[in-house]
Automatic annotation (TrEMBL):
Transmembrane segments: none annotated. Keywords: ATP-binding, Nucleotide-binding, Transport. Signal peptide: none annotated. Pfam families: ABC_tran. Residues 2-234 form the ABC transporter domain. This is ABC transporter ATP-binding protein. One of its GO terms (molecular function) is ATP binding. The keyword Nucleotide-binding applies.
Length: 322
C-alpha cells in the first residue's frame, strides 16, 4: 500500500508540489492530470525518491521512501520510473534493452517474457534494430517494455504515450493497462489526455499550481467536478448560473456538459449558432445566449447565425449529480 502524507517539494524557484495526501492499494491505477507546469512530473519524481522532501512522507508498505540524501543511488528497486526523457542504451538492440532488465529466471522463462513484451508493444519489426535508429514513438515503446521486464510493484509513468501516434496509441494503452491489472502492478501516470484517464484509472488527482484540487475515484472526479478547472480538463464545459436560467439547483453555479443540452422545437431558451465543430461522432455547437457562450452537442450540423431553441436534460444532469 502507498501512503502519501503532506508531501511537499519545492524547486529553487519555489515551484513544485505542496501538501499532497493520498493512499493507494496494490494494483490501483492513479491518473495525475492538470495543465502544463502544475507539478505532475515533480510529484512523480518525488514518489520515486529523486528529491529530498521539504515536508511530509511517502510510505510503501513498511518502507519509507527517502530522497538522495539517504540513498547513494536514488530510486527504489521495487519501483520503475519512466521519465519523459526515457533512458535507453542507444547502441544495443530493442530486444537487448528489454532483456538486460529481466529477472534472474531460467533462459526459457526470460525468453517468454521478453517475447511477450515485444509483441505487446508491437516491437517485433524492430527488435533487432539498434535503439539509436528508432523513432521517438518506437523508443518510448521499448522504454515501457523495459520498465516491465522485471515486474515492478509500482510503476510511475510520466506522459507514457506522448511520442506515440494516435493510430497505435489506442491499442497500446488498452494493452498496457490490461497487462498492469493482470500483473497487479500499482500504477501512477501523468497525462494531458482525458482518454488516458477515464477508461484506465481507478482514481484521479487533479493538480493546479502544485496543489491537489481533487483526489477521488475517476468517476466522481468526472461526474461531480469540484470546479470549472477540474471539469475543463475533460473537455468543454458550461458554467450555468442558476439565476440567469431560472433553474432549480442547490448550488448557484452548475457545471453542465455539452451533451446535457439538446435542441428543441420550442423552449424557454433561445440562442444563435455562433460556431460548429465536427467531432466525428457528433457536432459541438457554440451558441450565443444573451452574450454568453453555451456549448451543446448535435447529431447533425446546424447553420451559422440560425436562431435555435435549446434546453437542459435535467434527468441526465440529476442522475450524474446524485
Ligand atoms: N528543476 C527545476 N528547477 C526549477 N523549477 C522547476 C524544475 N522542474 C520543474 N520546475 C518547475 O516546477 C513546476 C512544476 O513542473 P513540473 O515539471 O512538475 O510540471 P508538469 O505538470 O509535469 O508539467 P508538464 O505537463 O508541462 O510536463 C513548473 O513551474 C516548473 O517550471
Amino acid at each position: 500500500m502507498l501512503k502519501v502524507n503532506g508531501l511537499t517539494y519545492l524547486h529553487e524557484n519555489d515551484k513544485g508540489v505542496s501538501n499532497i495526501h493520498f493512499e493507494l492499494d496494490k494494483g490501483d491505477h492513479l491518473a495525475l492530470i492538470g495543465e502544463s507546469g502544475c507539478g505532475k512530473s515533480t510529484l512523480i519524481k518525488s514518489l520515486y525518491g529523486l528529491f529530498d522532501l521539504d515536508k511530509g512522507s511517502i510510505q510503501w508498505n513498511e518502507q519509507k521512501i527517502l530522497g538522495p540524501a539517504y540513498n547513494l543511488v536514488p530510486g527504489y528497486p521495487k519501483f520503475k520510473h519512466l521519465s519523459q526523457e526515457f533512458d535507453l542504451m542507444p547502441f544495443t538492440t530493442s530486444e537487448e534493452n528489454i532483456q538486460k532488465y529481466l529477472s534472474r529466471e531460467t533462459p526459457e522463462k526470460n525468453k517468454k517474457r521478453s517475447d511477450e513484451l515485444i509483441s505487446l508493444f508491437d516491437l517485433d519489426d524492430v527488435k533487432h534494430q539498434k535503439v539509436k535508429t528508432l523513432s521517438g514513438g518506437q523508443k518510448q515503446r521499448v522504454a515501457i517494455a523495459q520498465a516491465l521486464a522485471k515486474p515492478p510493484e509500482l510503476i510511475l509513468l510520466d506522459e507514457p504515450f506522448s511520442h506515440i501516434d494516435q493510430f497505435l496509441k489506442h491499442r497500446l494503452r488498452r494493452r498496457l493497462f490490461q497487462f498492469l491489472k493482470k500483473e497487479d502492478i500499482t500504477c501512477i501516470f501523468a497525462t494531458h489526455d482525458a482518454d488516458d484517464v477515464l477508461p484506465f484509472s481507478d482514481y484521479t488527482m487533479v493538480l493546479k499550481d502544485g496543489e491537489a484540487q481533487d483526489f477521488r475515484t475517476t468517476q466522481l472526479v468526472f461526474n461531480k467536478p469540484k470546479n470549472e478547472y477540474c471539469a475543463s480538463l475533460f473537455g468543454d464545459i458550461n458554467v450555468i448560473e442558476k439565476t440567469k436560467f431560472n433553474l432549480e439547483f442547490e448550488d448557484d453555479k452548475v457545471l453542465i456538459f455539452p451533451h446535457e443540452i439538446s435542441f428543441k422545437k420550442v423552449s424557454e431558451y433561445q440562442g444563435i449558432i455562433k460556431s460548429t465543430y465536427f467531432k466525428g461522432s457528433h457536432y459541438l455547437i457554440e451558441l450565443d445566449f444573451n452574450s454568453k457562450s453555451i456549448f451543446a452537442t448535435s447529431q447533425v450540423n446546424l447553420k451559422l447565425n440560425d436562431k435555435v431553441y435549446f434546453d437542459f436534460d435535467f434527468e441526465r444532469i440529476k442522475q450524474r449529480l446524485n
